[in-house]
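Field reference: "sequence" (input) and "structure" (output). Example, Molybdate/tungstate import ATP-binding protein WtpC:
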Amino acid sequence: MASASRQSQGELDESESDVILRLDGVTKNFGSVTAVDDVSFSVRKGEFFSIVGPSGCGKTTTLRMIAGFEQPSDGRILLSSEDVSRVPPYDRDLGMVFQGYALFPHKTVGENVGFGLKMQGEDPEERQEHVADILDLVDLAGTQDRYPKELSGGQQQRVALARALVIEPSVLLLDEPLSNLDRKLREEMRFELKRIQEELGITTIYVTHDQEEAMSMSDRVLVLNGGESEQVAPPYDIYHRPRNQFVAEFIGDVNTFPGTVEAVTEDDYHVDLETEATGTVEVKRTVARNEFEVGDDVLLNVRPEDFEIVETGHGEDRFTGQVITSTFLGKRTNLLVDVGDQQLLVEASGRIEQDGSKAEDAITISWKRNQCILTDVDSDHVN
């Protein structure tokens, strides 16, 4: 029987003093529907923390509870060790950037950015200086007198960010802030957001459905599924050491082989794969998040980039298949390979086309024993 601790790698110890935000068993019900179910995590001061998951998994609801726009049905939200679960949004010392920016169309950029300072009663001259400084930080110097309709989507996003930052919040919340931008601009704004976050050292909680955004920007990532927390960990561990099959499949591409543990040694699991192309393979025990016993049903996962194209022939942890399609993507080429009873996605060097591998070619592929992921067969967590 497979066993695993509920403590996910990347979660913080309760005694750590640099925690600024903590969710403790937070649940949110809308009538008979549970949108967020017993979610707990902590965020460090200065950390870039992302919440990622499929549509409807509870990401935005979780963020709205942190912001104070929704109250939890159960559990606590602690900000700087103070329970703010029932504190209104304006008393939480948080800044928020919404998906739709929520700018006032009839106000200038300067008035939009300075709105929070005005509500705080800041002197007009000081407010003007602060607005000018924050606009310079987000690369919008000199735009104070323009209106939102005169700005591009990327510039409007920067105005929304400046408005959230100018009040100097303890935590910055961002709800899918790049989703309305085209791909090239999204990539540019990723770098800008991370630069600004690091320059200010501000704690940031970032909600996105885009796995690449979460992985490229974050110190740690929370993966949600059906309102439940699947894993909290640094991006590297989320990708290479997913806690279960859902995380393995949701974050990046993966090829999955069902199998059964036939033997267990000090260093390896011997797994009989249910495929015509190969039989029993040896897998390093270090790639498994659970402890398995003989007879356990498992899933062996190999990332496309962890396959190697090797000389033709059968042997240890290798099998031959036929290339169905070959897609050139610049630095890499994606091959779809038919190995009999399964089709595999294989990522190869961008030079593969020049090297001769193309559709209808027979190739042999292999992977290393320490470059795969072994997970438990658990229908509750399989995507």
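Residues 19-241 form a domain with the Rossmann fold fold (CATH 3.40.50.300).
The first helix runs from residue 59 to 67.
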